[in-house]
């Protein structure tokens, strides 16, 4: 993982989640998105 913004996408290409990492550790709040790209949970 390393350092930076880590993102994954749904099979339709919209964002699934994003989180900041530093040296392989999570440093920020995980943001989850539905398959329409709408933020559903922090």
What would the keywords be for this entry?
five-stranded antiparallel beta sheet, 42 residues, mainly beta, elongated, single chain, 0% helix
Describe, in short, the structure shown.
This protein is mainly β.
Structural overview:
The structure is a single chain. The radius of gyration is 11 Å and the shape is elongated. The chain has one domain (4-41). It contains no helices and five strands. The model has no long low-confidence stretch (mean pLDDT 93). Strand 2 and strand 3 form a beta hairpin. Strands 1, 2, 3, 4 and 5 form a five-stranded antiparallel beta sheet that branches. The chain is an all-beta fold and 42 residues long. It has strands at residues 4-9, 15-22, 25-26, 31-33, 39-41.
- Going by helix content, strand content and strand pairing, the class is mainly beta
Broad shape: elongated
Average predicted local confidence, pLDDT? 93
Distance between the termini: 20 Å
Share of residues in helices: under 10%
Low-confidence stretches: none
- The helix count comes to 0
Domain module tally: 1
Major sheet size, sense and barrel closure: 5 strands, antiparallel
- How many whole angstroms does the radius of gyration measure? 11 Å
- Element string (H = helix, E = strand): EEEEE
How much strand content do the residues show?
A: over 45%
Number of strands: 5
């Amino acid at each position: 993982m390393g350092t930076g913004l880590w993102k994954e996408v749904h099979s339709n290409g919209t964002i699934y989640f994003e989180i900041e990492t530093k040296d392989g550790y999570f440093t920020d709040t995980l943001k989850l998105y539905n398959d329409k790209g709408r933020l559903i949970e922090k």
